[in-house]
């Protein structure tokens, strides 16, 4: 196997190919173990959610944020509730305030069809 192909003359080493292959597989496995896949978890609610229910949802979202996942918070409007989107925005901002110790707002509240959506990302450990 070539160790330094650009050197003059090129430096080569005689080695066991099976051992080399095993070492490379081991390095690859370590690199894969260190990678972290970020999942998006969703928390759904309605604009007229009660305080205790909101706190329960916030605790669940804090758990997701502690695990390093993004959280998609959505408020679903049904029927006439679409006329009161300001209530949904208030709920989302209150939710963001409850989870502010563990996450920050990535994308603010905006309407997507019948849902108002906001994304939270975990705070960096600095």
Concise structural overview:
This protein is an alpha+beta fold and 126 residues long. Helices cover 38% and strands 29% of the residues.
For this entry, give a set of tags.
single chain, about 130 residues, alpha+beta, Translation Initiation Factor IF3, four-stranded mixed β-sheet, two-stranded antiparallel ribbon, 3 helices, about 40% helix, rod-shaped
Structural class: alpha+beta
Taking pLDDT < 50 over at least 5 consecutive residues as the criterion, the unreliable ranges are none
**Cα gyration radius (Å):** 25 Å
Count up the domains.
Answer: 2
Q: Which of globular, elongated, flat, extended, rod-shaped describes the shape? A: rod-shaped
Give the strand line-up of the largest sheet: 3-4-6-5
Q: Please, how many helices?
A: 3
CATH class of the largest domain: Alpha Beta
**Helical amount among residues, as a percent range?**
25-40%
What order do the SSEs take from the amino end to the carboxyl end, as H and E?
EEHEHEHEE
- How many beta-strand elements? 6
Explain this structure.
It comes from Keratinibaculum paraultunense. Its main location: cytoplasm. This is Translation initiation factor IF-3. Monomer. Strand 1 and strand 2 form a beta hairpin. This protein has a four-stranded mixed beta sheet, covered by helices on one side. The chain has a two-stranded antiparallel ribbon with strand order 1-2. The longest helix is centred in the N-terminal third of the chain and has 18 residues. It folds into two domains: 33 residues; 83 residues, 2-Layer Sandwich (Translation Initiation Factor IF3). It has 126 residues and is α+β, with helices and mostly antiparallel strands.
């Amino acid at each position: 196997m070539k160790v330094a192909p650009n050197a003059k003359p090129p430096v080569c080493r005689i080695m066991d190919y099976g051992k080399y292959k095993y070492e490379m597989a081991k390095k690859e496995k370590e690199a894969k173990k260190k990678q972290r896949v970020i999942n998006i978890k969703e928390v759904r609610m309605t604009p007229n959610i009660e305080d205790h229910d909101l706190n329960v949802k916030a605790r669940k979202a804090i758990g997701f944020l502690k695990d390093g996942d993004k959280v998609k918070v959505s408020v679903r409007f049904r029927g006439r509730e679409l006329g009161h989107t300001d209530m949904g925005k208030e709920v989302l901002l209150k939710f963001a305030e409850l989870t502010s110790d563990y996450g920050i707002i990535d994308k603010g509240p905006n309407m997507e069809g019948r849902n108002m959506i906001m994304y939270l990302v975990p705070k960096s450990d600095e």
